[in-house]
């Protein structure tokens, strides 16, 4: 037990404190970040389309 | 003036509101402890991490829901050959992979700080974990297959056929096979869903959580489909101009 406690890193100590409630927080954050990354990807695709549209508009003017 | 749109705007607004309100309620419920009525009884090893049930399990339910949607559209593509079906199938599969990956990572973190506490184990080849990873790889191969083909019609047809195969493997890899083996996951003893140690009060938060994540998956998937339709319309427009 003693050796095990010595082996714990700072992150482990935080996650295992308060009866492991931070583990739930970690899981929620992983999901949140994962979905947010996907939203950003979609957003980037919208930007690409917007840029393509701008090119289109300019070619329409000439 | 009526706005030209691919979708029902009012329904979409309602959907987004339902996600925001529902998800907030789920998170509040999940983190209520102490004397509150949703408080989960404490168990050794698990402690407060039992609450991960509200987040880790809906990942897989949403993944399966999206896989089913994807398979449905692949089937429709094979029947009628409409391009929008191919788009829907591939975007739903993409979202299914995202939720599958999140399910794998959250499960790994959960197990690391509970059953494998004090060890350096993040991945222990638990049957359900391993087969779920295989499942995600099967869907990953779907995109490998798509990228390997240049002709859009051939790509759509071949990948639709493959997608049906992928969907058929879902119940076996995620339910039938893992339950034949000793696992950390419930169900191995012939129990259909919840294990006996899962307190009934958890269902009050769990079912809304599943519903809320379904809605999130649906929203992200339909957004991509809308985007794909616009992109298609634009590129065909450009081609016509040329």
How would you portray this structure in words?
- The complex is a heterodimer of chains A (62) and B (242).
- Chain A is an all-alpha fold and 62 residues long.
- In chain A, 87% of the residues lie in helices and 0% in strands.
- Chain A contains three helices and no strands.
- Chain A is rod-shaped and about 65 Å long.
- The termini of chain A are far apart.
- The model of chain A has no long low-confidence stretch (mean pLDDT 79).
- By secondary structure, chain B is an all-alpha fold.
- In chain B, 69% of the residues lie in helices and 0% in strands.
- Chain B has helices spanning 9-30, 53-80, 83-112, 127-147, 152-176, 202-241.
- Chain B is globular.
- The two termini of chain B are 32 Å apart.
- Chains A and B meet through helix 2 and helix 3 of A and helix 2, helix 3 and helix 6 of B.
The portion of residues assigned to helices of chain A is over 70%
Helix content of chain B: 55-70%
Structural class of chain B comes to: mainly alpha
Largest sheet of chain A: none
Q: What structural category arises from helix and sheet content of chain A?
A: mainly alpha
Number of strands of chain B: 0
Low-pLDDT windows of residues of chain B: none
Total helices of chain A: the number is: 3
Q: Characterize the biggest β-sheet of chain B.
A: none
N-to-C SSE series of chain B? HHHHHH
* Terminal CA distance of chain A: 77 Å
Strand proportion of chain B: under 5%
What attributes does this structure have?
A: mainly alpha, 87% helix, 0% strand, rod-shaped, B: 242 residues, mainly alpha, 6 helices
How would you summarize this macromolecular structure in one to three sentences?
The complex is a heterodimer of chains A (62) and B (242). With 62 residues, chain A is mostly helical. Chain A contains 3 helices and no strands.
């Amino acid at each position: 037990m003693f050796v095990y406690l010595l082996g714990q890193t700072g992150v482990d100590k935080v996650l295992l404190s308060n009866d492991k409630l931070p583990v739930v927080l970690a899981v929620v954050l992983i999901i949140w970040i994962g979905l947010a990354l996907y939203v950003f990807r979609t957003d980037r695709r919208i930007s690409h389309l917007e840029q393509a549209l701008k090119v289109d508009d300019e070619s329409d003017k000439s | 003036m009526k706005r030209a749109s691919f979708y029902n705007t009012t329904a979409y607004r309602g959907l987004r509101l339902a996600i925001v309100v529902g998800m907030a309620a789920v998170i509040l419920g999940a983190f209520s402890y102490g004397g509150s009525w949703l408080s989960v009884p404490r168990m050794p090893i698990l402690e407060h991490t039992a609450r991960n049930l509200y987040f880790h399990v809906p990942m897989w339910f949403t993944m399966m829901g999206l896989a089913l949607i994807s398979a449905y559209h692949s089937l429709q593509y094979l029947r009628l050959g409409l391009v929008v079906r191919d788009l829907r199938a591939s975007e739903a599969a993409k979202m299914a992979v995202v939720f599958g990956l999140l399910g794998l990572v959250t499960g790994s973190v959960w197990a690391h700080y509970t059953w494998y506490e004090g060890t350096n184990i993040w991945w222990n080849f638990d049957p359900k974990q391993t087969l779920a990873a295989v499942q995600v790889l099967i869907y990953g191969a779907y995109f490998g297959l798509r990228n390997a083909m240049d002709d859009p019609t051939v790509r759509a047809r071949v990948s639709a056929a493959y997608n049906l195969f992928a969907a058929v493997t879902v119940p076996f890899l995620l339910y039938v096979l893992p339950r034949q083996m000793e696992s950390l996951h419930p169900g191995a003893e012939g129990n259909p869903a919840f294990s006996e140690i899962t307190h009934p009060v958890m269902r009050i938060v769990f079912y809304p959580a599943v519903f809320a994540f379904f809605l999130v998956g649906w929203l992200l998937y339909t957004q991509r489909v809308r985007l794909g339709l616009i992109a298609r319309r634009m590129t065909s427009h450009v081609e016509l101009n040329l």
